[in-house]
Specification:
Structural class: alpha/beta
Bound molecules: zinc ion
Number of strands: 11
Radius of gyration: 18 Å
Strand content: 5-15%
CATH topology of one domain: Lysozyme-like
CATH class of one domain: Alpha Beta
Largest sheet: 5 strands, mixed
Distance between the termini: 21 Å
Strand order of the largest sheet: 4-3-6-2-7
Helix content: 10-25%
Order of helices and strands: EEHEEEHEHEHHEEEEH
CATH architecture of one domain: 3-Layer(aba) Sandwich
CATH superfamily of one domain: Peptidoglycan recognition protein-like
């Protein structure tokens, strides 16, 4: 499978564990990552029952982020699951993912916080034209609070956190329910479910237009990106 030697020793790396969702079953995921023609690889795959498979040594770079800067400085974790149906993200999988992140952050001395434990959807494209091709997994219904709890995170992000000039709004996962439009053709509007996401409107009014993503609008894409 595709892999490249890291430019420096892993003990000195700043690494960002990152997770993604597969949307295909375990066997298909392994087949994709072991076929060089897919130009993709991942360090770890975690199944719904919590079983962890390592596919690339952490001292090697895997081709997983869609952004070479992040490939070179991160460890990739793929979750078997379905971004639009959070029932696939089982407690066993949250536990196993958290335990693995706890181990990796200990081993490579990485801060256990949301700035270093990134989702695929957090990673930017290398330029504005590439942004629409970036992924949106593990999806709006993924419970980050639960993952960070299992990972023993130092910083779980309070409801409203201000640091430097960045403000993070992190609503309660359980009480914040939203129904998003499916990214699958004909998928319609999904049933409201618990989410850590917030809808951002252009004005403080329920019927104000949503804020548009300039990177997506720039290439004429709809407000969706691939998983
Ligand atoms: Zn992804």
């Amino acid at each position: 499978m595709p892999r490249s030697p890291r430019p420096s020793a892993p003990a000195t790396l700043r690494t960002w564990p990152r997770w993604a969702t597969a949307e295909v079953d375990y066997e298909t995921t392994l087949a994709i990552f072991t076929n060089v023609q897919h130009f993709a690889s991942i360090h770890y795959v975690i199944q719904e029952d919590g079983h962890i498979t390592q596919m690339v040594r952490t001292q090697d770079v895997a081709w997983h982020a869609g952004n070479w800067t992040f490939n070179g400085s991160s460890i990739g974790i793929e979750l078997i699951g379905v971004a639009e149906d959070p029932s696939h993200y089982t407690d066993a999988q949250y536990r196993a993912t958290g335990t693995l992140i706890r181990y990796l952050t200990d081993r490579y001395d990485i801060p256990r916080d949301r700035d270093h434990i990134l989702a695929h959807e957090d990673l930017p494209g290398v330029n504005a034209a590439r942004q629409a091709a970036m992924h949106w997994d593990p999806g709006a219904y993924y419970d980050y609070e639960k993952l960070l709890r299992h990972a023993g995170a130092d910083d779980r992000n309070g409801p409203l956190r201000e640091r430097d000039e960045t403000v993070t709004i992190a609503p309660s996962y359980k009480s914040n329910e939203l129904g998003f439009t499916s990214c699958n053709p004909g998928g319609g509007v999904l049933a409201p479910r618990s989410t850590a996401a917030v809808m951002v409107r252009t004005e403080p009014s329920d019927d104000a237009p949503f804020l548009e993503d300039p990177a997506l609008a720039a290439v004429g894409a709809e407000d969706v990106v691939d998983v």
